[in-house]
Structure formats: C-alpha cells, structure tokens
Amino acid sequence: MNKRLELPKTKDELYDLSKSFNSTFNRLEKSFNNHRNFVSTISHEFRTPLSILITELELAKELNKTIDDYKISIDNALEDANRASELSSALLDFARASYDISQINLKTIRVDEVLADAKLNVINKNGQYRVAIQYDNDVTSESSFFDMEGNPYLLQVAFVNLIENACKYSRDNTCNVKISNDDKTIQLHFSDNGAGIDSEDIPHIFDLFFRGKNKKSEKGNGVGLSIVHQIITIHNGKIDVKSKLGKGSVFLVSLPLEI
C-alpha cells in the first residue's frame, strides 16, 4: 500500500497518468489507515465496559455475599451493560450518518417539528433536563418557513445529541435553542451555560471518540458530536461552535433549504 510509481522526468501523458495513480494510492492508503484506526478504537471502547462487566459478574459469583452486596454487583453490571449498549447504538447512528446522501431517503420536512420531537425525546429520557425553544425573526411554530429537504430520523438524532450535550454540561441542565431562517438556510443555535470548551479542544471537538479536557469527568463515549457533524454534512449544512471558558458554548447549525 505504501509503494508508488516513479514519476518520469518528462511531463508527458505518462507523467500525468503516473501522478494520477499515485494520488489514487494515497487516498486508498489514507482510507485503509482510517478504517484500521476506527476498528482499533472501537475495540478499545468496547473492551473497557465489557471488562468491568465481566469483573462485576465474577465477583458476584463469590460466596459469603449479602443480598445488598449482590444488589450492588448487579446494579454495577447493569450500568456497564447499558453503557456498552449506548455505545453500540451511537456507532450504528454514526454508520448511518456516514452514508452518501444519494443512499438516504429524503423528503420535505418541517425542521421545527423535528426539533420539537427531539426536545420531547430528551425530556422523556431525563426529567431533569429543560429545553427552551425560541423562534427568531417573528416566526412562529406554525410557520411553513422551516420546510426543507432532509431525513427526519437523522436530523432528530443530531438535534437530540446537541440538546443532551448542552443540558448535560449546563449548570442548570438547560439547553436554549434559537431557530431562524432566511431565503436560503435555516439556522439553529444550541446554547448552554456550562464550563465552556478549551480553545485547544475546539479543532478536535467533532473527531470520533474525542473527549475534551474538562469533559472526562462526565459520562460519555465521544461519539455524539461526530454523529452530529456527519449528519449536518450529508445535508450539505454547516456546524460550528463558539465557546468561552466559564461562560458556556453555542453550537451553530446552518441547513440549506434545498440539498
């Protein structure tokens, strides 16, 4: 995979063809390395909760344990099993979000309705989380200005991840969402009032399995924001983040009305 054609000294058709082959080999090598690293990282991520789960079950087999001891072991094992299940679901969403747009079913959807469903999804899973949606530019939730071509399932996955991320790191477990539009795009801002993101972490915030310096104490698998980035990208959208330490973060999403 690391072999390359030697370029001729004269820049003729053979030179162009050799250069084209080398460029293709470079892309294939990069893709192969990315795939190898991806599989290696997934194996590592699964190994941790599974190892803990096995340890808990082995301890539970020991004799002379009280009922309370067994309950603690079962609760710990269940927590680790749930963590592995959540990681599996997240990676499945990541795979779906990695498809080419031509392979995904698109239809006319209301982004504000997908956002409302995402809000309900988050609140139903965690009653402590609060989500406030603000419609900008004097647009109401009854407006049809938020129509666009997209995949409702994938966009809801993206919105759920952004809302949960904001709620988890906010001091009051609240995510504030502002939705607005213009002639060509729909914009959504997901804000929190948490600790913020270190400037050194921001360039890597959408990398798979990346966890920032001030996030490692929180539960998570480093997959959510990678999923969000993939989903927004395949909808030909853009996502950015602005953050101030001690003040919080804002994730800015822009989606085109037509893909």
- CATH-derived topology of the largest domain: Heat Shock Protein 90
The coarse silhouette is globular
Category by helix and strand content: alpha+beta
- Number of E-type strands: 7
Low-confidence stretches: none
Keywords: Kinase, Phosphoprotein, Transferase
EC number: 2.7.13.3
Catalytic activity: ATP + protein L-histidine = ADP + protein N-phospho-L-histidine
GO molecular function: phosphorelay sensor kinase activity
Give the SSE map.
Elements: H1 13-60, H2 67-97, E1 107-110, H3 111-125, E2 130-135, E3 147-150, H4 152-169, E4 174-181, E5 185-191, H5 224-234, E6 238-244, E7 248-256
Parallel strand pairs: 2-4
Antiparallel strand pairs: 1-3, 4-5, 5-7, 6-7
Helix pairs in contact: 1-2, 2-5, 3-4, 4-5
Catalytic activity: ATP + protein L-histidine = ADP + protein N-phospho-L-histidine
InterPro entries: HATPase_C_sf (IPR036890), HATPase_dom (IPR003594), His_kinase_dom (IPR005467), HisK_dim/P_dom (IPR003661), HisK_dim/P_sf (IPR036097), Sig_transdc_His_kin-like_C (IPR004358)
EC number: 2.7.13.3
Description:
- This protein has 5 helices and 7 strands; from the N terminus they run ααβαββαββαββ.
- The strands form 2 sheets. A 5-stranded mixed sheet has the order 2-4-5-7-6.
- With 259 residues, the chain is α+β, with helices and mostly antiparallel strands.
